[in-house]
Amino acid sequence: MRRRVLTAMLLAMLLAGVSRADDDTRIAVVVHPSRQTVLSSEILTQIYLRRRRFWDDGAPIVPLNLAAGTPLRRTFSRLVLGQGEDRLAEYWNREYFHGVLPPATLASTRAIVRYVASDPNAIGYVPIDEVDASVRVVLSLP
C-alpha cells in the first residue's frame, strides 16, 4: 500500500514537472512560405475561433489544431484564445449549430509542419525548435 502511494506521488511530481516544461515551450505560428502575411495575436484569435475565415487575398484559411488534451494545445489555447478546453468545447458546440466547424485536428506537430508546407492556405502552431525551411514563422508566442 505504501509503495503505491509513493509511486503515485512520484508520478504526480513527474507530471507536474512536464507541464511546467511545456509552459516554457516557445510556440511558432507557421504558414506556407509563399504566404506573405503579418499576424497579430488578435488576428490569430479570430482565425482560431473561425471569426476570420479568409486571407487578405480571398483564399480560405485552413487553421490546424493538435488533439484536445495535448500540452501544446492547452498552452496555445490559454495564450491565444484565453480559454481552457472545457470552455472551448462549449463554444464549438454553440458554433456548430451556426454551421461553423472548429479547426481541423492533426495528430502531431510533424503532421502540422508537413500539412502547412503543402497547403498555402494552412496555418498551424508547433514548438519553435521544430520549425524548418518548409514553413514560415509569422508569430512567436512566449
Describe, in short, the structure shown.
This protein has one domain: Periplasmic binding protein-like II (D-Maltodextrin-Binding Protein, domain 2). The protein has 5 helices and 5 strands.
What does this structure look like?
Helices cover 44% and strands 18% of the residues. It is α/β, with parallel strands linked by helices and 142 residues long. It has a five-stranded mixed β-sheet, sandwiched between helices. The model is unreliable at 1-22 (pLDDT under 50).
Keywords:
142 residues; alpha/beta; D-Maltodextrin-Binding Protein, domain 2; 5 strands; 44% helix; disordered N terminus
Write the layout of secondary structure elements.
Blueprint: H1 2-23, E1 27-31, H2 41-48, E2 62-66, H3 71-81, H4 85-96, E3 104-106, H5 109-118, E4 122-127, E5 136-141
Parallel strand pairs: 2-3, 2-4
Antiparallel strand pairs: 1-4, 1-5
In terms of DSSP E residues, the strand content is 15-25%
Q: How many β-strand stretches?
A: 5
* Helical amount: 40-55%
**Gyration radius from CA atoms, angstroms:** 17 Å
What is the CATH H-level superfamily?
Periplasmic binding protein-like II
Q: H/E element string?
A: HEHEHHEHEE
Q: What is the helix tally? A: 5
CATH architecture: 3-Layer(aba) Sandwich
